[in-house]
Design a protein that fits this description.
Distance between the termini: 24 Å
CATH class of the largest domain: Alpha Beta
CATH topology of the largest domain: Glutamine Phosphoribosylpyrophosphate, subunit 1, domain 1
Bound molecules: 1-O-pyrophosphono-5-O-phosphono-alpha-D-ribofuranose, glutamine
CATH architecture of the largest domain: 4-Layer Sandwich
Mean pLDDT: 94
CATH superfamily of the largest domain: Aminohydrolase, N-terminal nucleophile (Ntn) domain
């Protein structure tokens, strides 16, 4: 993207399904730790605010620690956490000698040697970027079956409401952030389920026996059914109890992604399919999606099932995942990104007046690289058609024909990304600074004042990347014209399901509309929409009214004007993907509320209306 407002999260869960000794003998004691490291590292694209790892040991005698957790907001949080865990292993190896390879000794003497692992990568959407807000969140209890660790890729639109429900229950949550609220809600029903089983058996068994019965009978599906029914949001939520039951629950519209793989050794869950493929090298086809409204539940004996726990809604999985967040190494995502690039070709050809000879194509690294390949494939196809026409008409002489046949679209690496960070994912306060210094260019590869430069990016959110960096840099090459192409449609509305885009004024498309309303003296539309938002029952998104008076092209044109600062001499044009073509490229991932304003839950309408109210009242705060 060019100036994205990013925020996402990634989850990773591993459940060893055989005794730990089996893995120690077959792969060595570090097996699960290394696998989790890979699963997380291969998803680091999803979260750079912080990371966390939790571990639960099964069947540990009382008196020994069975839950461990590390979290970090370090610059390299994954490395930092695994360094600390490795240190524990090294110490244990030194102290234990041959005992290091014995399950019982290892579990009793070294933390993070349990059979159930939970990893998380965070981009905060609620609360600050502090270690306290990193996942896994932990709700500890002296009864194993009541202890709970939760980590998720989620955002709730109705935290206030969920918070009130908890306080009405008499609880006293320590913070009003969605991570705490969600964990306390699940924790509350986990307590109730424990109590229910206890009540049913208290007359027949001793308390110690009942603990064992609870471990066997605890039904996490039932807990989730009750805990999640008031959730309004997008989520892929994973949790482990102190006894080692595990779950991963996915929201009713399938907004956030979650995938799993299982064989007789492991059950593995990750946000992204490719992470599982790379870490475990299993057949791609054996990695399944956790279905929307379903939860994968793993018992303490390692049995697992995927079942529905909530009424499904129309499937609306997030298309932004496909365009930007997820790794493009997933074969389906790769194909979709290429198609996005290809579908833009007719509009680009129009914009360059079919003059391929004087056009140089390039892309903004890194995510847009794949759509660039698709765009170039489309250009090649166009060229082949043109060549065929010329051959058929045979109007050209040999020399001219040879020139035509040997002509290739001109491709150059014009934009270089110097920092590895995904700037979208950096917090707002530091983003502009980072963006300005992240990119560089290749000099003297274009014909000055003659060439048009076409640069594709995956998305334009705030426009910061363009305004503060890309356009200034490209203009130094002195092209006649710069065309910025976005493989995503115009981002017009907030996200409230896990991507941190919640303030209207952040969106360059919204700022363009404000400018157009002012120019056309239609500012009354803002006031009218504001009144509607204030009095709304939130069954409608009233912010659509603000965009309605203008065509897609008018808004694109205004965006081009806004990002073109005075010192830029080249002509600037911005071309956006249409929503229709996005759905052609990615037909199964129809979640498009940030482009269309069609939110899959009522909470979404509430968030967009509130975001607009906040804007009108000058409040620079998140709308959920
Ligand atoms: O319009 P803006 O708000 O500036 O956001 C859009 C930019 O942010 C992203 O880049 P990022 O550096 O995060 O990631 P990438 O290297 O994966 O493309 C994205 O690819 C765009 O270039
Ligand atoms: N991006 C996410 O999934 C964020 C998770 C959670 N809402 C948090 O703020 O930590």
């Amino acid at each position: 993207m060019s100036d994205i407002i990013k925020h996402e999260c990634g989850i990773a869960l591993i459940r060893l399904r055989k005794p730990l000794q089996y893995f120690i003998d077959k792969y060595g004691p570090l097996y699960a730790m290394n696998k989790l490291y890979l699963l997380m590292e291969k998803q680091h694209n999803r979260g750079q605010d912080g990371a966390g790892v939790g571990n639960v040991k099964l069947n540990v005698d009382p008196g020994h620690r069975y839950i461990s957790r590390y979290r970090s907001v370090d610059n390299q949080p994954i490395t930092q956490i695994f360094k600390k865990i490795s240190k524990k292993y090294k110490k244990a190896k030194k102290e234990g000698g041959k005992w290091f390879n014995q399950e019982k000794w290892l579990k009793e003497n070294c933390a993070f040697t349990g059979e159930v692992w939970l990893g998380h990568l965070r981009y905060g959407t609620h609360g600050q970027n502090a270690i306290e807000n990193c996942h896994p969140m932990l709700r500890q209890n002296n009864w194993k079956n009541r202890s709970l660790m939760v980590a998720g890729n989620f955002n709730m639109t109705n935290v206030e409401e969920l918070f009130d429900i908890l306080t009405e229950l008499g609880q006293h949550p320590k913070e009003k952030v969605d991570t705490v609220t969600v964990m306390e809600k699940i924790g509350h029903f986990l307590d109730e389920e424990n109590q229910r089983i206890f009540e049913a058996h208290k007359d027949e068994y001793t308390n110690a026996e009942i603990t064992q019965i609870i471990e066997e009978k605890l039904d996490l599906l039932d807990v989730l059914q009750r805990a999640c029914r008031d959730f309004d949001g997008g989520y892929a939520m994973a949790g482990i109890t102190g006894a080692g039951h595990a779950f991963v629950a996915r929201d009713p519209s399938g907004i956030r992604p979650a995938h799993y793989y299982a064989d007789d050794e492991v059950v593995v869950v990750a946000s992204e399919k490719t992470a599982i493929k790379t870490a475990f090298n299993v057949n791609y086809a054996d990695i399944q999606e956790i279905k929307p409204a379903h939860a994968l539940v793993i018992n303490t004996n390692g049995d697992y099932k995927m079942e529905q726990f909530i009424e499904p809604l129309e499937r609306k999985s997030c298309s932004f995942e496909r365009i930007y967040f997820s790794r493009g190494s997933d074969p389906a995502i790769y194909a979709e990104r290429k198609m996005l690039g290809k579908l833009l070709v007719p509009k680009i050809l129009d914009a360059i007046d079919y003059d391929l000879e004087n056009t140089v194509f390039s892309y903004i690294p890194n995510t847009a690289e794949t759509s660039f390949l698709g765009m170039m494939e489309g250009m090649e196809q166009h060229l082949a058609k043109r060549q065929l026409q010329e051959l058929r008409s045979a109007r050209e002489d040999d020399q001219a024909l040879e020139k035509l046949l040997s002509f290739r679209p001109r491709v150059e690496k014009l934009v270089i990304k110097d920092a590895k960070l995904r700037t979208f994912i950096t917090d707002d306060a530091h983003r502009d600074d980072l963006v300005a210094h992240v990119y560089d260019t290749t000099y003297e590869v274009i014909k000055k004042k003659v060439d048009t430069v076409v640069v594709i990016d995956d998305s334009i959110v705030r426009g910061t990347t363009l305004e503060k960096s890309i356009l200034r840099m490209l203009d130094r090459l002195e092209p006649k014209k710069i065309i910025i192409v976005s493989s995503a449609p115009q981002i017009r509305f907030p996200d409230c399901y896990g991507i941190d885009m919640s303030k209207m004024k952040d969106f360059i498309a919204f700022r363009a509309v404000l400018a157009l309303l002012e120019e056309t003296k239609q500012e009354n539309i803002l006031e009218e929409a504001y009144q509607k938002c204030l009095n709304s029952d939130n069954t409608k998104n009233h912010v659509k009214d603000v965009f309605a008076p203008f065509t897609y092209e008018q808004i694109s044109q205004k965006i081009a004007e806004l990002v073109k600062i005075d010192t830029i001499e080249a002509e600037v044009e911005v071309i956006y993907q249409t929503v229709e073509n996005l759905h052609k490229a990615s037909p199964e991932h129809t979640g498009d509320w940030y482009f269309t304003g069609d939110f899959p839950t009522q909470g979404g309408n509430r968030v967009v209306n509130k975001a607009f109210v906040n804007f009108m009242e000058g409040k620079e705060v998140r709308a959920y």
